[in-house]
Amino acid sequence: MSKPKAVVLLSGGLDSTTVLAMALNQGFEAYAMSFRYGQRHSVELDSAAQVAQQLGAARHIVVDVNLRMFGGSALTSDSDVPKNRSTRDMAHGIPVTYVPARNTIFLSFALAWAEVLGSSDIFVGVNALDYSGYPDCRPEYIDAYEHMANLATKAGVEGAQKLKIHAPLSKLTKADIVKAGTALGVDYSITSSCYDPDAKGSPCGRCDACLLRAKGFAEAGMPDPLLVRLQQ
């Protein structure tokens, strides 16, 4: 019997890489989807390509959708990315790195591809514990989108598809995610999480994404393989 197909949103970062490994471990044939959306940290697309190849995705595509034309985020404009924020600061308010409606846009593309593939499963690496306050990472958002999605497609209306959005990291800490991925053999040295990398793609070590990543590896009791590789 052929494996069921799943669309996996893959940024090339720690979370989405772990989710791809989870989908594959659950027996899905994974179709990875990344986005070139005008983000300042586009080096993550190189990581996504490496991850998709190394983990064995059936296919990896990069979708072009220029969110920089709207701006509204430090990730899609020339605004400064916040640095050296405490975890307490990260836990309050929505930061300037929030990209308006990003996950809704990404999930809509994934929904379209899933319908074409005949897939009933989409995997996304949103996290509601160790995250930077993004409203489109909350479980209630994912539940609402899943309900809408099943009303929005031909396959859903005709009963050929009952879409499920898998968010397996939703209630995990970054340390839990690191441990889960490590157990599945994920090579985190090829992932990229930084919001503001240098010209060579090296992480700044001070943005929210870098600090949360560092917190995850520290609490998991292991060094970050990416930093180990860069120091060699």
Q: What's the SSE blueprint?
A:
Layout: E1 5-9, H1 14-25, E2 29-36, H2 44-55, E3 59-64, H3 87-90, H4 102-117, E4 121-123, H5 139-152, H6 154-157, E5 164-166, H7 174-183, H8 208-220, H9 225-231
Parallel strand pairs: 1-2, 1-4, 2-3, 4-5
Structure commentary:
The chain is α/β, with parallel strands linked by helices and 232 residues long. It has one domain: HUPs (Rossmann fold, 3-Layer(aba) Sandwich), CATH 3.40.50.620. It is built from nine helices and five strands. The protein has helices at 14-25, 44-55, 87-90, 102-117, 139-152, 154-157, 174-183, 208-220, 225-231, and strands at residues 5-9, 29-36, 59-64, 121-123, 164-166. Helix 1 packs parallel to helix 2 (44-55), helix 1 (14-25) packs across helix 7 (174-183) and helix 7 (174-183) packs across helix 8 (208-220). It is globular and about 50 Å long. The model has no long low-confidence stretch (mean pLDDT 93).
Quick structural gist:
By secondary structure, this protein is of the alpha/beta class. It has a single domain (5-231), classed as HUPs (Rossmann fold), CATH 3.40.50.620. The protein contains nine helices and five strands.
